[in-house]
What we know:
By secondary structure, the chain is of the alpha+beta class. The chain contains 5 helices and 17 strands.
Amino acid sequence: MAAAAAAADQRDRRTGSKILSRLKMDFISYWTCVLILLASSRSLANDDDDHHEMEEFLKREYSLSKPYQGVGSSGSSHWELMGDSMVTTEQVRLTPDMQSRQGAVWSRIVSIALKDWEMQVHFKIHGQGKKNLNGDGMAIWYTKERMKKGPVFGNKDNFTGLGVFVDTYPNEEKYLEAQKKRYTPRTQRIFPFVLAMVGNGSVGYDHERDGRPTELGGCNAMVRNLKHDTFLFIRYIRRRLTVMIDIDGQHEWRDCLDIPGVRLPKGYYFGASAITGDLSDNHDVVSLKLYQLTVLRSKKEEEEEEEEITIPSVDNLEQILRGEVEEGMSGVAIFFTVLFCMLGFFMLIVVGLVVYSHWNENRRKRFY
Ligand SMILES: *[C@@H]1O[C@H](CO)[C@@H](O)[C@H](O)[C@H]1NC(C)=O
Ligand SMILES: *[C@@H]1O[C@H](CO)[C@@H](O)[C@H](O)[C@H]1NC(C)=O
Ligand SMILES: [Ca+2]
């Protein structure tokens, strides 16, 4: 009887240590898996997946930079000025820091062959006004129309194409304040605010609401009266629109918005414009650098993009406007997911071990 009990006990111990080592193995393989996951997410984040298969060429004919030769005076320049804009040695000033001005600079030539491109905008917004006593902002354009005055940062309303706005005055906030209404924190936007909109010729920009009804995405950007250089970066690749900003003087791009399924026709005009009202600012463009990108596409992607786009549009627009677009997991999200997985797994092991040792103890006790 005693011998049998001892044998059983030994067997239990053996299975016990087997289970323990199984757990250890699981733990190790889990860790390996976690490390691999972390490493791969790190490499994904570092290795901007568009860049290693992409070449870029500066297209001088679509770029505007110092010394602005002939801009504003000669018909042979690729760029044309409009309204109150003027060129100096340091910048193209779209508006001076004076009330009720509007100005623009437009490319004269359409971008026929450009499918994928990147625009790097070096700009400067500065003026006498204190915070929220300045306005109204500037815009970068890729549109069918050019040289049309209007209320949308100095361009016509119901434009056809892409507008990226640097809106420096919170009209909606002032409007709500006047009505004694409050923002909910979820919907509050901090100004200056960068925002993108795609128009098809019959969509209006809602100035009183700072374009909220047509906002594809945006971000806060404290760009006024800075000593260092400020940049905006608009990239259009495989129908994906990405806007980034570099405004902290650190030479680092910060994500602003990123939207897939943006359909923009080829052969539109690039331009920049700005407007002032009761409040004003200097809105300066130092340079607009356009890079043509050569992007490799899979057969499937080529087939998908074969159909010629004639009217600008955005896939799943309703969801984007409602803010329901599913976003890929960010690095931080991945990190926390993995962390919580690990914690959860660790807890499981601890609980398992406790339960097992209790069970083992009880079993042994029964034999004595
Ligand atoms: C333009 O967009 C609006 C809003 O998305 C849509 O209702 C309208 O049908 C579009 N017009 C054209 C010509 O595509
Ligand atoms: C823009 O389009 C809307 C809707 O089609 C129309 O009501 C509005 O008058 C248009 N505005 C301009 C300036 O063309
Ligand atoms: Ca505004």
